Amino acid sequence: MLARVPAGRWTTYGDLAQLIGTAPQPLGRHLAICTERSPAHRVLAYDGTIPPGFRWTDPNDRRKPEDVLRSEGVSFPHGRADAGRRLTAADLKALVDAGV
């Protein structure tokens, strides 16, 4: 499911969790330890901020997730990802239903 979130878009732990039938906290814990979590930088906190515990799979990767998201077309007005670029649970479901 996470791989279906396209560049330039983002979703929340809550939206993704709702779609797969879990809660945001266990999903976040899973993403923190899963090595196959690309593109986890596109999953943000409910308010469009980067989760404080975010880490790249590669411990040597020093990029800021916000910089990567900006390079993909997501702006951060007032320190939060542009809400117009967010994919809700319904949007994610539509991607799945469309086979994207």
UniProtKB/TrEMBL annotation:
This is MGMT family protein. SUPFAM superfamilies: Methylated DNA-protein cysteine methyltransferase, C-terminal domain. Transmembrane segments: none annotated. InterPro entries: MethylDNA_cys_MeTrfase_DNA-bd, MethylDNA_cys_MeTrfase_DNAb, WH-like_DNA-bd_sf. Residues 2-73 form the Methylated-DNA-[protein]-cysteine S-methyltransferase DNA binding domain. It comes from the Bacteria. Keywords: DNA damage.
